[in-house]
Known about the structure:
This protein has 299 residues and is α/β, with parallel strands linked by helices. It has two domains: 7-117 and 179-298, P-loop containing nucleotide triphosphate hydrolases (Rossmann fold, 3-Layer(aba) Sandwich); 118-178, Orthogonal Bundle (Histone, subunit A). It has helices at 19-30, 55-60, 77-93, 105-112, 124-133, 135-145, 147-152, 158-171, 198-211, 214-225, 237-244, 250-275, 286-298; strands spanning 7-12, 34-36, 63-64, 99-102, 115-116, 180-181, 187-192, 279-280. Helix 2 (55-60) links the parallel strand 2 and strand 3 (63-64). The longest helix is centred in the C-terminal third of the chain and has 26 residues, at 250-275. The chain is globular, with a radius of gyration of 19 Å. The termini are close together.
Amino acid sequence: xxxxxxxxxxxxxxxxxxxxxxxxxxxxxxxxxxxxxxxxxxxxxxxxxxxxxxxxxxxxxxxxxxxxxxxxxxxxxxxxxxxxxxxxxxxxxxxxxxxxxxxxxxxxxxxxxxxxxxxxxxxxxxxxxxxxxxxxxxxxxxxxxxxxxxxxxxxxxxxxxxxxxxxxxxxxxxxxxxxxxxxxxxxxxxxxxxxxxxxxxxxxxxxxxxxxxxxxxxxxxxxxxxxxxxxxxxxxxxxxxxxxxxxxxxxxxxxxxxxxxxxxxxxxxxxxxxxxxxxxxxxxxxxxxxxxxxxxxxx
Length: 299
């Protein structure tokens, strides 16, 4: 039966699974634009380390929600949700099919499931205290006051750890207890992409990043925004900083980053399979499979 609800297409999956290339092919086939739902690709000048779509790819297909702000600024989930919803609704008004692509589970689900997060403003003094305390202490503190949030926040994700603590100390309630649901009035087609050879793909991509400007990009970020910038805690940039400090070799950096990325991908897999209702694509020919499923949803 025909539905009057607008269709929103979603492509999700763990890092290095090939979402970007598949999304480009699908966007070109169906004449779609791409809304990038990624917590790091929203930052300017962080290109190689975030596996951001290349300039060529961005020329081929219109991308939204990339390069929203500089790394010395912070954008929380609620703020991103508001920006993304505005972008998506603009496309719906033009009778287009918004195409959401990304591996940031919390950011994606804040949009497609309509999570309402607390609007606690940034507390700069408190944030500085937490930064001085260190990520290990902060994350252990989060485990005590909001165990549910600590289960969904990566141990090394300083930005989200601090935000969760900020909300708790600002309201007296855990951030997870304040995240309500108000799903948008959309038909959502969730497609998932995963790979059996994900570990090999991660290692190949990591080697490519470090051999094609990762260290140079990190050097520029350190020079411009300081070595203590929280975003430089992001996987990959951590080890690139250690190279710049002559503490490890490139080979060791590749090994460390690949190992951290593999562990991160495991958490992404668990998140998507537990919290999303994705139709997982045939990995032998994901493009053909995705085309069939999208055409079926459009008709």
